[in-house]
Structure formats: C-alpha cells, structure tokens
Amino acid sequence: MLFFGMTIGHDASLAIADSDGKVLFAAGEERFSRLKGHLGSPFLAFEYAVKSLGLSQRELEQSIVTIGTVFTEQTRWFLSMLVDRSHQKNYDIFNTGLPPGLLRSLVKEAEIQNLTSEELVANAFGFSPKQVFFLNHHDCHASSAFWPARVEKSAVITLDGSGDGECGTISLMNRQAGKVKVYRIPERYSLGHLYSEVTKRYGFKESRHEGKITGLAAYSENSTSSKLLENLLVCKQGRLKFGIRYLLDPRFRDRLEFWKPINHRKAFSSAVSRMESKTESYPDLARGVQSFLESTVNQLLRGSNVLSEVDSISVAGGVFSNVSLNRSIRSSFPNHNFYVFPNMGDGGLAIGSVWEYMRINGQQIALECMTDMYCGGKSDNTSNVVTRTPATSESIASLILEEKIIGIIHREMEFGPRALCHRSIIASPRKREINKTLNERLNRTEFMPFAPVVRDVDFAKVFETGVADRLGNNSSYTQNFRFMTETCLVRDYWVDKIPAVVHRDQTARPQILSREDNPLIYDALGILAEQENLPVLINTSFNAHEEPIIFDEEQGIDELSNGRVDVLVSESFFITLNE
Question: What is the pLDDT of residues 82-131, one digit of tens each?
C-alpha cells in the first residue's frame, strides 16, 4: 500500500510514502508550476511522481490519500477552487485576496455541485472518495515534527498563523502510546498573525516576508522594546490569554458582546501601532516583536507540564521558520534534544498527514521514515544547446578563489524552503561586498547575510552551539544544522574571515554538509579548508526573488544565460552555453 499525502491550499505539495511511512517522493507544486507558494493542488507534482516512480493503476487504486486540513461546509467553495485546474493561478490571498466577483461565483458553483470534500479531491486526481481522508491541520504538523525526529517520546509544539481554527498545539507524543496529552491553542492567540502584522507594517507581504523582520531585529540594541507587547498576550501555566487591557477594549469586538471572542487581528494591529509610536526605529519594532515571540514560546513550553516527562522537543508550523526563535529554544532548554521539521510550513503537511493517518490507525512508522530532504525528483539532463565538460572539486575550488558565483544542480531536489547544495548557489564568503553583488543579481533585498555551508568535520571549529560542542558532530543535537533551521554563534576567530555569512549579532544559519550529500562540493570545501584556511562557503537558494527554487537543468541554464550565476555545475559537469 502507498500513501499519497497532499497539501491543498497555499504551498501545495505532494508526498508519497510506503506502508512503513518511508518517504519515496516529496515536492512542492511551485517547483513545477513556477508559481511561488502555489495556491491550489499538487497536480503537476502528482503527474511527475506517478511517472518517475512508475506507479501502476492498481497501485493507485489501492492507495490512501491524506490531506492536512479539514474543509467545512462553509469552506467547501474554497476547496472546490483549489482542486479546479482552471484556478491554479498565483492568487495572493493573504495580501490581495481573490479577484473581484470570484468569491461569489465560487460559492454559487459549490452549492450547485453539492459534492463532499472527499468527492472533490477524488474527482480531481482520479481516486475513489473512499480512499480520501481529511485530518486536523495541527495534528498533521505535530506528526511531521515527531516521527522523523527519531526519538521515543517528545514534547511537540506546533505554531503557525492558523489552521482548522487553531494557531497551535502542545502535546506529549510517544512512539508506542501515540499522542498522550494535547493543549489546543485557538486561532485568536496566533503569534504567527502578530508577527505578520509587523511584516505588513514594513510594506512587506504577509506569510511571505516574515524572515526579513527576523533579520532586521539584529540591527536594534533596544532590549526593552518587547515590553510594549507584554499586556497583549500573557502566558500563565502554559496557556495563552489576552491581557485585560485588550480583553475589555470595545474597539476589538465586532459588536459590544463581551461573551464573544475579540477580533484578534484588530487587537494585534493596535498593539503594533502603539509599539511603533513608542519605538525610535523600524529595527526596534522588529526587535520588539522578535523578543516577545521568543519569550512567549519559551513560557509556553515551560508552563506546559510536558517537559518534565521527556528529554526531547520537536516543533513544526510556519512560526518555526524563524531561525532566531529556534536558537532561543535550544538555549533555553539545553538539556533537551531539539528538532525542527525542515519543511515546517504548510508544505510539510503533505507528509505529516500521512504519518498522522498511520498514527491514528495504529500502523507502525519506521524509525528512519525521513533521514534527509533530498526527495523531490531528479533533473533530466537532456539539453543539447550546451557543452558539458567534467567538473572536479579542484576546479570548483579554483573558481571560488576567483570569486565566481556558481550554480549547483545535484541529484534529487530538496523538499522544503532551504537549498541544501542540491539546488544552491555557492560563492566565497571572504568579502562582505559579495552580498550586494548577489542580491542585485537575484533581485533580492535582505537584512540577513547569506547562509554558510560547512563540512561536518569542520562545523564545531567554526560555529559555537554550546550543546553540540559537548556532544560532537554526530549527535542528534546537530541535526537541525543539516537543514539550516537554526542559527548559532560564529567563533571569534572566524568572524572577520567569513564576513559575508556573519550577521550583525555574530550569528549564522549554517548547513552541515556530509560527503554523501554532495561529494563534489564536500571535497571542494576540503581543498579550500586545507589549502586556503577557508572551510566555509556561501550557500543560498538557486532562484531569483519571488521565484521558486529551480527544479531542473533547463531552468539552471536560463539562470546562467541571464547572468544570475557565472558558472553552472549540473551533476559532475560544467555547463557552457553554445554560441
């Protein structure tokens, strides 16, 4: 039996797993449609996966299909749009909504169709309605956080903007007993929505550019700015509540009905406005919301009464794309193993829904159900408009020393938002000016430096994590750094030697590379480390601003031809454009 897990909505994705829950394929629809954050269904990913895996009609008919969101009668119109191929467009529902008139027509069409959610998905993909199962959004996030962490039991926290009326959960999960305790956090206390209010205040896009705020926070030294949010949400005994000042303010209620929940977006917007009026700069505003987020999440964990029973913390949900928050959790709980699911946003629900279905039905999930994120399909290297010459680690190291910007395409693409040297751009980090050059070429505006990639054997020499220093590179305590989901300190000796990857607060977001991940780049790093005392390279995703990371060689050739990169390496070959 196979499992087809799907994210239907924004960040549409597909994951396919075997009967043990081991991932056979996982990819975001945006990589195929070329629509950033694709809103809809993973049709193209599905067609690619079925073909590339050689799946038979019989295998499809015997499969289970899981979706990590429950669509109600009131949102059936939305699902009918998401599974309609004619609506697979780049709607930005968070910032601009749907085109005028479309909502009314979709609601009317859904009423006429009168189909169940299961029938809508089954009809769209060619399954039977009996094969289709919808599961709670945050329960699927929780399963994505717990099962690949490879621990026996763990405190599991999920946090995002919202999903199925909730913004998060805190639970205790056990490989044998399943989910033991759950605290569900209503959407009105959404820390994700609060962070998005600050994002919008800068003119950036909600649910797209929150990372810019994280980067900007390091430019402020005003450690007291977060106090301006203290009365907004309070955490007592692991439970979030509105402060009395906001709870009793009639401006935050749609009507003067105090027994009904307040309009949290209005309250958040007001709190941000008040904070903005009392801070001196935008960095102070960013620092304030970042500090408030970190302290609140740590209070939630401390007060949840689950940490005393476990030595592990696992997290998922879009809030945990905040790499500075993740560093704060590690620092606050140094005696706990800490794991962030690498595709922490809604794209990760595709595989999370599979594991949650298996958990509910008492099916055994393999300990190593997902050991890396290289599961998104290989590039077809069939272009006949280029010349291929063998690439060696020595030649790549020489090009780095010549300050060339190199695009990398290697085997299966990564599942999730981070490029991990399979669809990456690499360059020398010795000069900070490279940041300006790269950002201009990629049409990016960033407040963070680029991320570094480092060999596993050199990680502890360059970066300081505290726990990892005690336990070594092969410990599970370093696994987040394989997937660039956490920041850490750069050791003093290296700060001035690799300035392009060091942030203002002396932190970086490194990727630990093993030789198995990419032998060519690993050995090039080895040469640079041994001969040039340069154990680190810039690693940024192979895409321009507001575009998805590239999928195949053809897209890499386009980026080479338009000057995004100086050199293109596809598998073990240099690609040169024919004149």
Answer: 999 999 988 888 888 888 888 899 998 888 888 999 999 999 999 999 99
Q: Count of alpha carbons within 13 Å of 521, Cβ hemisphere only?
A: 35
For residue 183, give both structure tokens: 């605290």
Contact 158, 141 (CB under 8 A): yes
- Which residue is associated with the tokens 């809604």? 346
Dist CA 353 CA 350 (whole Å):
6
Q: What's the pLDDT score for residue 474?
A: 46
> Percent helix, strand and coil across the chain, each rounded to 5?
40, 20, 40
Number of neighbouring beta carbons within 10 Å of residue 363: 14
Q: Residue 99 and residue 345: Cα distance in Å, rounded?
A: 25
Return the ∠ at Cα 310 (arms to 342 and 357), rounded to 5°: 50
Q: Exposure of 85 by Cβ count < 10 A (0-12 exposed, 13-18 middle, 19+ buried)? A: exposed
State the Cα angle at 548 between 314 and 48, rounded to 5°.
Answer: 85
- Give the sheet arrangement for strand 507-508, strand by strand: 463-464, 488-490, 507-508
Nearest by Cα to 143 from 73, 66, 60:
66
Contact 473, 456 (CB under 8 A): yes
What pairs with residue 463 in β-bridges?
A: 490
CA 289 vs CA 194, 401, 505, 530: distances in Å: 8, 40, 17, 42
Query: Which residue do the tokens 């005393």 mark?
Result: 308
d(CA 429, CA 400): 9
Whole-angstrom Cα distance, residue 196 to residue 169? 19
Measuring CA to CA, how many Å separate 178 from each of 31, 137, 152, 351, 358? 34, 17, 10, 17, 10
Distances (CA, A) of 240 to 186, 266, 282: 9, 17, 27
Contact at 8 Å (CB) between 35 and 89?
yes
Q: What is the pLDDT of residues 504-549, one digit of tens each?
A: 999 999 999 999 999 999 999 999 999 999 999 999 999 999 899 9
pLDDT in tens, 68-81: 999 998 899 999 99
- Amino acid 20 reads D
CA distance 329 to 304: 14
Q: List phi, psi (to 5°) of 314.
A: -125, 140
